[in-house]
Amino acid sequence: MAHRGRGWAAIIAVGLCMAGPLRDAAPAAAAYPDRPITLLVGFAPGGSMDLSARALAAAVKRAAGIALLVENKPGGTGTVALSALLGQRPDGYTLCATPSSVLIRVPQLQQVPFRPLKSFRPLIGFSAPHLGILVRSDAPWKTLGGLVQEAAAHPGTVKYATTGVGSTTHAAVEEVAARAKARMIHVPYKGGNEALMALLGGHVDFAALTSEFIPSLKAGELRLLATMGEKRSAKFPDVPTLREAGYDFVNDAVFAVVAPRDLPGAIAVKLEQTFAAAVENREYREQLDRIDLAPVSYDGRSLAEFLRTNWGKINARLVAGGLINKAATPPD
Amino acid sequence: MDRFGGILFGFSTALQPDNLLFVLAGCLLGTLIGVLPGIGPVAAISILLPLTFPLEPAGAIIMLAGVYYGVMYGGSTTSILVNVPGETAAVVTCLDGYQLARQGRAGPALGIAAFSSFIAGTLGLIGLQLVAAPLARVALRFGPPEYFAVITLGFVFVTCLSRGSRIKAAIMAFVGLLLSGVGLDPITSEQRMTLGVQQLFEGIGVAPLAMGLFGVAEVFRKLAGPASGDAPQAPIKNLLPTRDDWMRAKGAILRGTGLGFFLGMLPGGGPVIASFAAYGVETWAAKDPERLGSGAIEGVAAPEAANNAAAAASFIPLLTLGIPPNPVLAVLFGAFLIHGIVPGPLLIRDHPDLFWGIVASMYLGNVLLLILNLPLIPLWVRVLRIPGDLLYPLVLLFCVVGAYGINNSVFDVGVMLLFGGAGYLLNRKGYPGPPLILAFVLGPLWEVNLRRSLLVSQGDVSFFFTRPIALGIIACAALIATVPLYRAYRRWPRLLRKNSR
Questions:
Q1: Distance from CA of B464 to the nearest CA of A (A)
Q2: Number of domains making up chain B
Q3: ipTM for the predicted complex
Q4: Between these two residues, B280 and A321, which has the higher pLDDT value?
Q5: What stretch of H or E contains B50?
Q6: What structural domains does chain A harbor?
Q7: φ/ψ of residue B108, rounded to 5
Q8: d(CA B292, CA B296)
Q9: Contacting residues of A for B43, CB less than 8 Å apart
Q10: DSSP B194-261
């Protein structure tokens, strides 16, 4: 009996799908969502991507009463989850939360089955790691300028750690070095914690890091020379941005939610509004602060723009660094 | 508050009824996850993490920590009984544990595994309590050249790791190295040997590889063997380690504990590498190395001690520096942050109740685990009485479910079955699995640290001789490598005489 029941359900589902295009989009959106939405996450539970996706899901539940179920699909440096989204129906019931790097950097280094700037519909950029350039607190350099001057005066002696080749942190230092015509030695580590240990252990002179640095900074073991955002970070109001330190650029990474490309417009609008309301939630902001992330709010359009601009920037740096000749995956 | 006042204070937290319940829950869950093949502590703690959000911070962390060291206890069970590592840190335990079980001595093997886990876990905690902060500073002094040296030392042990043909062992080690190179280049992120397969970007998983090479291969061997003519298990002799077992194991437990404690603290180290290294040291330290691999009790005691000591020690960098040294601790780090607590140098000052409560709970957890595990031994041993026709298909089923559970991926199941088939064939031809696994685990660390060293020195190799710690370790490795040569040289005249007679 159960079997037959499922058969009927399938027939009805197919019928509805065929009827879908005929109906006006508005009632569909009004009824949406009538069941929980799956939010794919391309990284293991417990990491900052996962934690912030869960914080977002909780905020959406509080703000709009909509259930988002986080489903972890780790693998392929986060590309497995996005690839899985590719095969999903664009009905708004499957979305994917991803760091912008998986749409910008990873596809340039590796061939992936999706077109990063074309296959998905960006919905929101909802949080961002703190990014900074740090030295040990016993290091002689008090400003980024001083550090870079030393590097320019003694080419090939200053060593720095980052969270990986082509990462946002690496890109920032390369940009600084290129502008100051300084040659420094890059020692890439796997993730922020290893890079932080290398800095604390004195195996490198400075490091460009994501939020992992915050506990050691609070304990007085590190000195933060610059942050990388548009404005000074609310968490570190005394620390200049790269721009204020004399390097006129901004380096950002965001955690974003995307949907399959052909998401009906009405549903996309509804989701964008829901997310935008959710990230204003006070509890959400407190939760983000606890996991050392900063709240941001890119809407779908500005997120798409962010991805496109950064694709170009990162591409230029990877090519200039000799890592690739051209992007392994075409963007669109 | 001094260290002893602190720990008493900690017990006052840990002994609160609800926290005691969390210790028990964590240990039970950990043991269960350890027993089930495939899913390891990282996945288990990750899955449990969201469930702990509503709990008090102390309770949540105490439970998740319990899962971690509980896994170290439980992982050895299936290694010993059916040659399937319950999780990666228990791979080495298969080598002698399973042989012991075949000789009807599964009881003593399980017993010594539980006791050495308890002893090492407790000693590790004493170390954590007394010398955590200064030791963590020493661990930070380990840069890429020092790592490279330590891992080179590990590779020297490979040559000691197996009985039989050295050449076949070396071939397998090279295959392991080659397999470990699959995935993205650790420095440049280029693809290597991935065939464009997305699931291979992050490399071949060590859990499916080990489960295939040991467990599934063993199932194939049983199924391919004569259906009823297969020699039945030797009758089960005793359930607890004998006096003789203890005499043999005590040195191994202490060596394993010391080595495990040290390797657990290092970033990128942890229980897996500790257990391999401890086994290597035993083969080197043994008066009669031939015993290892054929059912030596010290071959179970050393790795089980090492992985528990390493689990305890890996809390040191997290609690004192705020840096998680391995993926399990990274997930725990997330758990701390979620609860609004920043682990690190300030933890012991700002949250002494939490710091000491965690340490005290781990003492309690170790006692609980011992009490839990000893009565289970007769029950586990009975598993071996299940007829093979029934037991081995069941083992295969658990392996498949376990491999799938790691990443919810059918690909991992395929990897496991592939290496199961390969392991079966290699085993028949006398090619040993352990060197392959060891090289596979150590290879990536070896490579990345060599390349980082060379990046820092701009291609100059003299750094090995200018850094005292690295130089010392390399010297040790050279010494150990030459001892067998020296022994062989000493043996030559005797061999010649024997032959001329």
A1: 15
A2: 1
A3: 0.77
A4: B280
A5: none
A6: 35-129+253-320 (3.40.190.150), 132-227 (3.40.190.10)
A7: -60, -35
A8: 5
A9: 44
A10: -TT-GGGTT---HHHHHIIIIIIHHHHHHHHS-TTTSPPPPPP--SS--HHHHHHHHHHHHHHHHHHH
